[in-house]
Records
---
Amino acid sequence: MEKFVNQPLKSRSFFTVPLSVLLATFATALGAQSVEAAKPMALRTIMERLGRDMQAVTGAISKEDWPLVAELAPRIAKHAEPPMSEKMRILAWLGADAGKFRGLDGQVHDAATAMGEAAQRNDGQAVIAAFSKTQQSCLACHQSYRRSFVEKFYGSR
Ligand code: HEC
């Protein structure tokens, strides 16, 4: 038994132990990090979806696939909303700015709706104009609120 312990295994365990300690340290660090980092807000998932749908519209415009634009536009206009509890947190944080925030979301709604209507008329120019208006509304909200939102709800960046 003693012979077994003192044989080559010993030198192997010399590496094995520190490695496992190292791994445990990493695991602890990772664990601590994921506890520290706030879990993603539902709004982020909604935004990612909006981003993908806008990209899909760009592709559809390039192909002059107006039926596809007409299908995508209402998804952008009537995107999902965060659950009530998250909405309350966001509105509480916005305070007096809630109206402006909602207004920018309303601009996205109106511009995307116009884009869908233009697509139904196969009016490429109007689709592109409305697409631009939609994107400007996305940008306006991001420029006003995104950084402070991330700082508030994720405590970083
Ligand atoms: C009323 C405000 C508002 C409007 C309008 C808005 N966004 Fe956002 N968007 C946000 C906020 C706030 C964040 C940060 C969310 C987060 O990090 O959890 C964000 C983040 C994003 C992100 C990054 C998500 C990530 O994974 O970090 C994308 C992509 C995005 N928005 C796309 C869009 C698109 C496309 C539109 C327009 C069609 C749009 N947004 C309109 C407020 C808005």
---
Amino acid sequence: MKTIIEPFRTKMVEAIRFTTQCEREQLLAKAGYNLFNLTSDDVVIDFLTDSGTSAMSSEQWSALMRGDESYAGCSSFYRFREVVQKIFGFPEVVPVHQGRAAERLLFGSTIKPGHIVPSNTHFDTTRANLEYLGAKAVDLPIAESREFESEYAFKGNICLDKVAELIAKHGSNAIPLGMITITNNSAGGQPVGLDNIRSYSDILHAHGIPLYIDAARFAENAWLIKQRDPKYSASTVQSIAEEMFALADGCLMSAKKDGLANMGGFIAMRNPSLACRIKDMLILTEGFPTYGGLSGRDLETIAVGLEEVLSEAYLKYREAASRYLAKGLTKLGVPIVKPPGLHAIYLDAR
Ligand SMILES: Cc1ncc(COP(=O)(O)O)c(C=O)c1O
């Protein structure tokens, strides 16, 4: 196997404190065996989450200095909006402080008690925001998503037959929108194929139901489409991303993932009157529409992160790092959600 090295230089380091096994056992007992109760100083390798934990690039740190903290009309917003419009293709862009704020605002403007919202798998905050409003969040993943051993390329896909059944059973008036999470984070971070997004979009649109993409890991999803669907092997990740979002009416994004930022998010959409309603609520709870809950410097770092995440050298390295971890876990007999190429991982692990 060829080693894929990091496609970046590390300029800054932060010392970590090493603990002994005995200390860790005591700390865990004191935390009630709940990892959320630990302080990060006591953690040597932190696998709690991928959210907001990435180190920023030198370009992001430079952009941060350009942050315009004017209350209204800050230039950082216009730079941020331009990047989001270019990559995602939606004219309306609403910044928010993180993904769950985007969920609350979109659902708060579209959902009524009794409504039903399908998805491949709703992320936990997405489900909670829907249920809080009295709606039913319905997960319709394909059967392969539960088969850890399956090497199916797109285990994040939504089951199209079940979507059609749901619409036939409840009628389109009960379903104000359909969601799809790319990658499907609550089901092992598995990717969704472009054909699946297209067919889902066709079914929803045939019934007048808009499609919203939960885009937290959009770049990784696009990269895995390029790797796993021969139709797209010659396409750029950016063009695959554009094709995915062209099928949707809007998207929600936690920029703490593929925005490569420590905080932030946005809602982007085509519908101007919905955007107007959302912005009214934004002013009540997040802030003026040109900053949402963010400072100008956050908007700058997200704008840079969204472009940098499309680097294919970076995405190749991300996949290689995950495979390296999968290989190590397999060697130790820890069950994992198997990716395609599992056989090679087993052989390598021996
Ligand atoms: C797919 C997905 N959607 C939404 C969210 C919520 O985003 P945030 O944590 O920024 O509120 C997350 C966070 O992990 C996520 O993975």
